[in-house]
Amino acid sequence: MYKNGDMCPICGSGALTKKSIEETFDYKGKSITIKDYLIFECPVCEESIVEQETLKNTEPILIDFRRKVDNLLTPNKIKEIRLLFGYTQENFAELLGGGKKAFARYENGAIAQSRAMDNQLKMLRNNPSNILVLRVNSSGYTEYIHRVSTPYEKTEYVENTTTENFLEGLLEGTVGSIKQLSGSCLCETTA
Ligand SMILES: [Zn+2]
Question: Which domain holds residue 27?
Answer without folding.
Answer: 17-57
